[in-house]
Each structure stands twice: as structure tokens, then as C-alpha cells.
Amino acid sequence: MSKPVLKTRQQFKFFLPIQTRWADNDIYGHVNNVTYYSYFDTAANSLLIQKTGFDIHTSEIIGLVVDSACSFLQELSFPEMIEVGVAIGKIGNSSLRYELAIFKQGQPQAAAQGHFVHVFVDRENRKSTAIPEKMREVLEQYLLPSE
Fold first, then answer.
1. 126 vs 97: CA distance, rounded Å
2. Per-residue pLDDT, 146
3. SS3 category, 117
4. What CATH number belongs to 9-141?
5. Is 113:100 a contact under the CB 8 Å cutoff?
6. Which parts of the chain span the membrane according to its record (predicted)?
7. I want to staple 70 with a disulfide (CB 3.0 to 4.6 A). Which of 26, 41, 114, 134 is the partner?
């Protein structure tokens, strides 16, 4: 299996700083792999909340994760400040694909990287629903350039 092309800070317009916690470390002394997904989830939702005004408590729609992946490139551990870069890889009718990367403080290349897909559904009936136009317009500012 070949290594993925490393993402760099220049590919991202939104960053969320996160302080690793004591509880993030596992018995081997590094951040446990499942915690990286927590960082991804926190950063993707922070982009929605901070930049689009998405209200996770009262919105008529919610985003459900239907796909995610992570490539682990360098160990993280407590105590460490990290930054999670978030970009939008694709905007569909009812889905968003986030491209994410975790950077150690001061490092230009990702320590971990992956993706995360939200499908937006009606909060009550869980049926797929279109991403609101106002949200779509804001998120387009974070689209990765076409390759």
C-alpha cells in the first residue's frame, strides 16, 4: 500500500486549534487512533457552526456521518497543541465531503489526514434533504481547487 500524498497547510482556509488531553493518550503513550476521528468531527462541525451559523440544537436539518477515513502519518501525544485544517472536497445536493488534516504546531505537513462525509437529513424523519443555499454559498469559499 502506497503512502498518501501529504497535505500541507496551504490547502486549508479553516483551522481549529486543539489541545490534546491526558485522556487522549493510550497505554502506548500516544493519542489513540479513535481520538483522531473525534478531532475531525469537532473541526468539521466547528466550521459549520462558526462560518455558516449552523445551530446544532435547533436546526431543522442535521448532518449524519456516512463515511470517514484517516491516514496516520506521525504520532501525536499529550501534551501537544495541534491544528485541524478543514476544507470542502465536494458539495453535493445533500452531502458534504470534508478534507481534513491534523498538523503539529509549526509543522507544514500533516501528521494525519483523511476525509469525513456528512449527509444532511431532516431532524425528525431522517430523510435526506438539500443543503440550504445560504449554507452552500458560505461553504463554497472552503472548496479545494479542482485538480
1. 19
2. 65
3. strand
4. 3.10.129.10
5. yes
6. none
7. 114
